[in-house]
């Protein structure tokens, strides 16, 4: 299976009301924004026509954005509680 096909098998139990990642969407530092857009394997970060957006739905909980951001854009990051979050089905 390709990586994309394996990721497509994952299950998500998402808390639709509470994000486990706190993102500063007012940030205007394009270099920092582009780092997150390029690095996030789930494409949770978008920067289109100068507009920065984020959706935690589909987050793979890899922690890459937390490490890259150094608190510049990602202001808080924690694993979802209990049964919430991603369940990997292919490693
Ligand atoms: Fe993307 Fe990983 Fe950050 Fe989730 S934890 S938003 S998958 S970089």
TrEMBL record:
Source taxon at top rank: Bacteria
Native source organism of the sequence: Frisingicoccus caecimuris
Protein name, entry field: Ferredoxin-like protein FixX
PANTHER family hit by this protein: FERREDOXIN-LIKE, FERREDOXIN-LIKE PROTEIN YDIT
One Gene Ontology molecular-function label: iron ion binding
Residue ranges that the Swiss-Prot or TrEMBL entry lists as coiled coil: none
Keywords, in A-Z order: Electron transport, Iron, Iron-sulfur, Metal-binding, Transport
Family matches, as InterPro entries: Fd_FixX
């Amino acid at each position: 299976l390709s990586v994309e096909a394996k990721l497509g098998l994952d299950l998500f139990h998402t808390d639709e009301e509470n994000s486990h990642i706190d993102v500063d969407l007012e940030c205007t530092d394009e270099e920092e924004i582009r780092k997150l857009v390029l690095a996030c394997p789930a494409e949770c970060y978008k920067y289109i026509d100068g507009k920065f957006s984020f959706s935690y739905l589909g987050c793979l909980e890899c922690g890459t954005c937390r490490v890259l951001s150094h608190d510049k854009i990602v202001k808080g990051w924690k694993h979802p509680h209990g049964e919430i979050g991603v369940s990997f089905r292919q490693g």
